[in-house]
Amino acid sequence: MKAKKRWLYFVLIMLNIPLGLATRWAPQYFPTLVRIYGGDVFSATCIFFGIRFLYPLKSVAKVSVISFLVCIAIEVQQLYQAEWAVKLRNTPLGILLGHGFLWSDCVCYAVGTAIAAGVALLLERLPYFRIS
Fold it and tell me: 7, 86, 109, 125: which could form a disulfide with 71 (CB 3.0–4.6 Å)?
């Protein structure tokens, strides 16, 4: 059963990544709300799906809390402005770290985590993924 759940979350991650990147690299194709906030929402959903992939038997509530805390930690680290950290953020890997702290990002992470938890609860109710 664990393997089935892992495959589910692997597929969700693989679908999520291009959508999240598209909101940053091709924003003209999205409505304004998605263009502004979508990347952070997709980031939060991807982190949730990634943690769920690693820990498929933990409760959705625990994974939600853990993934939201990871998102907040990533956002808070943006307050640290040492020269080496700024240089790291300006590399291609920097898209994972972000550039500036925004309270609105924290709200986006809460929304993304809630959406991902909802998707998880719905999909895991399907008979194929249910644990007896």
Answer: 109
Looking up tokens 């399907």 gives 126
Buried b (16+ CB within 10 A) or exposed e, 10-49: eebbeebeebbebbeeeeeeeeeebeebbbbbbbbbbbbb
Amino acid identity for residue 40 in this structure: D
Residues 56/5, Cβ–Cβ less than 8 Å: yes
Between the alpha carbon of residue 69 and those of residues 24, 37, 47, 104, 110, the distances in Å are 23, 19, 10, 15, 10
Q: Taking the mean position of all CA atoms in its chain, how far away is CA 47? A: 4
Q: First-to-last CA distance in the chain?
A: 9
Helix (H) or strand (E) segment spanning residue 22: helix 2-25
Task: Note the pLDDT of residue 126.
Answer: 85
Q: How do residues 70-108 score in pLDDT, each as one tens digit?
A: 999 999 988 888 888 888 888 887 777 777 888 999 999
